[in-house]
């Protein structure tokens, strides 16, 4: 599974990199709502939450569906290059019409997959869409359902309430955060822009993440984001400024957020390198291959031995009462999954479990789910 962005015919200069205060604020709010996703930021989340006024914490909890399990489209940049000030991005948010705003705000789904427009209309004017939105809100609890009713009944008032909440978050903690992280994010965006200019899109995307690649085939040219989700959009859409915006985030890891809803400019928010961020777990296909490799009972027993010492095929066959061809097949599966190291001694080849790689399987699997 993956998310793809069709960029056929798109000039390279339409692909831009820039930090977004609104996206960074929503990423920080997500960390406060789901600190378990971000162990490296646990101290920041604990300290920040402890310093917030109870009223602000209550309002943040009421609106957290906008950033907790999914990131609402309204919380990502509206135009090609995000402005430096949060107020300017909030002004751009205010320019959205009510139908667009409400439909995006009511994108409620705990699995992280978009459930927008499933009834074919806006919940403000289409009864089936309204019913569907309220059903999804109800599944998230009474507070969420109450909020959805208010938004559908009086969009203007709720939009004003949300803006005020984001402004109060800026005053309470985000202004200091933005002052601290903005230089790093701006430097990263400049680095990626220069890499794009000098070496091209493939290298620039690889610098964003090894899981973001370019694919050229009979269907055209596409940006391919390896995620355990499925989605597709186009860089050129009617009524939308054509292009793709890449937004660096100091609060993003392990997430790789992609806005791919129809009618919105595609945005990819990616984590910048920080001390707690290590290389990612690779593609989802590789993760599935590794999990399948160690799930087989015979291979689990072989891993038990290979974790302790290097062995040849013949030694393993004798020790486990298996034929050499059987052992070879299992070793091949483990080797192709990248779980073994090998070394040759004359005509003998010894195999050993790559312990650091196997030790990361649990965290890599979680990162693949959260990406």
TrEMBL record:
Q: Enumerate the InterPro entries for this protein.
A: ArsR-like_HTH, DUF5937, HTH_ArsR_DNA-bd_dom, HTH_MetalResp_TranReg, WH-like_DNA-bd_sf, WH_DNA-bd_sf
Is this entry keyworded Transport? Answer: no
Domain HTH arsR-type, first and last residues per copy:
279-371
Q: Which UniProt keywords apply?
A: DNA-binding, Transcription, Transcription regulation
Instruction: Classify the source by domain of life.
Output: Bacteria
Molecular function terms from GO: DNA binding; DNA-binding transcription factor activity
Does the UniProt entry include the keyword NAD? Answer: no
Coiled-coil stretches: none
Task: Please give the name of this protein.
Answer: Helix-turn-helix transcriptional regulator
């Amino acid at each position: 599974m993956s998310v793809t962005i069709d960029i056929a015919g798109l000039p390279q200069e339409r692909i831009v990199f820039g930090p977004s205060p609104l996206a960074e604020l929503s990423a920080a709010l997500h960390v406060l709502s789901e600190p378990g996703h971000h162990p490296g930021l646990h101290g920041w989340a604990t300290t920040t939450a402890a310093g917030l006024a109870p009223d602000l914490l209550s309002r943040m909890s009421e609106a957290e569906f906008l950033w907790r399990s999914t990131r609402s489209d309204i919380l990502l940049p509206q135009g090609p290059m995000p402005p430096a000030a949060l107020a300017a991005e909030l002004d751009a948010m205010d320019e959205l019409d009510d139908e667009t705003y409400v439909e995006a705000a009511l994108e409620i789904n705990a699995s992280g997959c978009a459930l927008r427009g499933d009834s074919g209309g806006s919940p403000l004017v289409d009864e089936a869409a309204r019913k569907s939105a309220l059903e999804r809100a109800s599944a998230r609890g009474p507070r969420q359902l109450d909020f959805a009713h208010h938004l559908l009944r009086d969009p203007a008032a709720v939009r004003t309430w949300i803006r005020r909440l984001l402004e109060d978050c800026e005053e309470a903690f985000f202004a200091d955060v933005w002052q601290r992280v903005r230089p790093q994010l701006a430097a990263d965006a400049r680095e990626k822009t220069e890499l794009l200019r000098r070496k091209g899109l493939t290298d620039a995307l690889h610098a964003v993440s090894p899981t973001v690649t370019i694919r050229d085939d009979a269907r055209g040219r596409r940006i391919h984001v390896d995620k355990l989700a499925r989605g597709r959009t186009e860089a050129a859409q009617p009524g939308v400024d054509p292009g793709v915006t890449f937004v660096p985030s100091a609060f993003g890891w392990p997430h790789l957020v992609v806005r791919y809803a129809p009618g919105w400019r595609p945005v990819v928010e990616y984590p910048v390198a920080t001390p707690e961020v290590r290389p990612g777990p690779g593609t989802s296909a590789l993760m599935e291959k590794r999990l399948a490799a160690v799930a087989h009972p015979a291979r689990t027993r072989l891993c038990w031995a290979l974790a302790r010492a290097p062995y040849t095929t013949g030694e393993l066959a004798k020790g486990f009462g298996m034929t050499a061809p059987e052992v070879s097949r299992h070793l091949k599966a483990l080797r192709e999954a990248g779980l073994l190291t090998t070394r040759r001694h004359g005509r003998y080849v010894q195999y050993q479990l790559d312990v650091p790689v196997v030790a990361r399987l649990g965290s890599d699997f979680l990162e693949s789910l959260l990406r």
